[in-house]
Sequence to fold (264 residues):
Amino acid sequence: MSHRADEVRKRIAKRKRERGLPSGNGEEKSKRTSLFISDEERYGGVYSPPTYEGGPGKNNGAHPLFRTEVFMFKILFSAVLVLLSAIVFKNGSPMFDQAKKAVHYSLEEEFQFATVSKWYRDQFGEPLALFNTNSSDSKETESDTQVAELAVPASGKVLESFKDNGQGIMVETNRPSVEAMNEGIIIEAGEKEDTGLTIVLQHSDGTKSWYGNLDKIDVPLYDFVEKGKELGKIKLSDNQKGTYYFAIKKGDSFIDPIQVIQFE
Fold:
């Protein structure tokens, strides 16, 4: 048995000599066995992880998420767009009229937040719908909203009709606040020159409802509100009556609110 072990040792020593490795004398036996050899000893070098910092020998400072050629292409493409737009607007040729209209529309038309929001809810449900345990109640509420009529912001007497100013109406009411006539996104909330403290609500059908002459605003800008949500307070007098401004705008034109909502 010992003779066979000696033969095995000789073969191992021979292979080591052929590979240029130590033959395994008494000094080498005191070293660690192959089970405890480090990666540096096993692979004959030190592993150096890739780095993205600048400097010689450090991958030329390139970041994996940043490509110089793509960045330069974007800058060049943006410069070309600006140059083409300048040529279109400086040239008085009729052939550029359609291009001018398209540029004007893209820069001046308001983004339809309410339409996109409604599409998202129709496709994917309400945000965090996975955590909503009242799914049946939300479906019933959604179906009711689709068939229900528009809500009255605040019932009362119309003091100034649409024919008087061509934009909206002034309503006298004893209600302390105004409510959203339909669900939508708050796209304006602040002072206006003609209507005072005003809220503009954008709806999914492209219309906008205005609520002006308010005493206080209770909703933040760009907030989504349901139909009937309280938007702001009306300043009431000593006899507990106040007035508010209401208008509905579709596209570039105002429509008579009395045609769609019954106030009295």
User: Anything to note?
Assistant: DSSP finds eight helices and eleven strands in the chain. The CA atoms of residues 155 and 263 lie 5 Å apart. The chain has a mean pLDDT of 76.
